[in-house]
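Figure 6 in text form: structure in, sequence out.
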């Protein structure tokens, strides 16, 4: 079924060279009604983690400041969005972090493994010398996540799980790799993935099952603005400016951006194009 959804896009033209800053001539963010084929679209929830509490893993939370925002989204945004998709026969997929075994019992993961077949060989790695090892060690201790936080992060990952509110239901597809997610997409003819989860400018773009890998396979990759958050730094955190920039990157390089209320309303009302 095809529905009409109010859709955000970015008008990245025309630079005005009569202006002091030509890029300020761009049209910027706009919204229009666009068609969405629900039979070939899936909502994909990537890296929705149960990361415990600040009291349990203070070092992990000190290094990953977006956890409270992610928890809020998992509690109050994603459950309703996922329910609407499920109730109206829109595919829901999950991309997990392959740490431990918490995901392996899901029927949808077992199906993804079977569909994807043998795992591809890991990419060949360049040899590291002592200088590179020292640079990597320095970054770990002094840039991210900080030497004093490492133990808590390791403990957190050792009991990683999916929050109860957003766990897979039935045989919903569960992928740990890009090959598995692509196989799940091929199974149902999915060519448009609408991403939710964490974090937009990190795992959603960069990790296995993320936008870069899926775009290379011809899949159109969009995002739900209110169902994602981003890694922020000291200078961007108060205004969540990194998230805003990342949404622009999605709109420019990958797909489109939906507001959750617009998407839910359009699905519920099934307005045919």
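Output sequence:
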């Amino acid at each position: 079924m095809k529905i009409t959804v109010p859709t955000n896009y970015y008008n990245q033209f025309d630079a005005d060279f009569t202006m002091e800053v030509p890029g300020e001539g761009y049209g910027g963010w706009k919204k229009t009604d666009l068609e969405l084929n629900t039979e070939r679209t899936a909502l994909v929830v990537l890296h929705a983690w149960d990361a415990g509490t600040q009291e349990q893993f203070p070092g992990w939370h000190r290094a990953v400041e977006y956890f409270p925002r992610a928890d809020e989204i998992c509690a109050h945004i994603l459950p309703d969005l996922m329910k609407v998709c499920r109730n109206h026969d829109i595919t829901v997929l999950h991309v997990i972090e392959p740490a431990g075994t918490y995901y392996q019992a899901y029927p949808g993961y077992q199906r993804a493994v079977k569909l994807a077949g043998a795992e591809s060989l890991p990419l060949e790695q360049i040899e590291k010398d002592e200088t590179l090892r020292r640079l990597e060690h320095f970054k770990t201790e002094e840039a991210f996540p900080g030497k004093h936080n490492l133990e808590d992060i390791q403990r957190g990952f050792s009991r990683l799980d999916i929050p109860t509110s957003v766990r897979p239901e039935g045989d919903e597809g569960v992928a740990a790799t890009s090959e598995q997610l692509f196989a799940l997409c091929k199974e149902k003819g999915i060519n448009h993935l609408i991403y939710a989860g964490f974090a937009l400018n990190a795992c959603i773009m960069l990790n296995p099952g993320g936008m870069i890998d899926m775009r290379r396979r011809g899949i159109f990759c969009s995002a739900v603005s209110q169902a994602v958050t981003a890694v922020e730094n000291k200078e961007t955190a108060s205004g969540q400016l990194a998230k805003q920039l990342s949404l622009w990157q999605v709109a420019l390089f990958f797909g489109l951006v939906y507001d959750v209320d617009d998407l839910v309303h359009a699905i519920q009302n099934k307005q045919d194009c």
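Caption detail: Strands lie at 2-11, 28-37, 41-46, 91-95, 174-175, 192-197, 220-228, 257-258.
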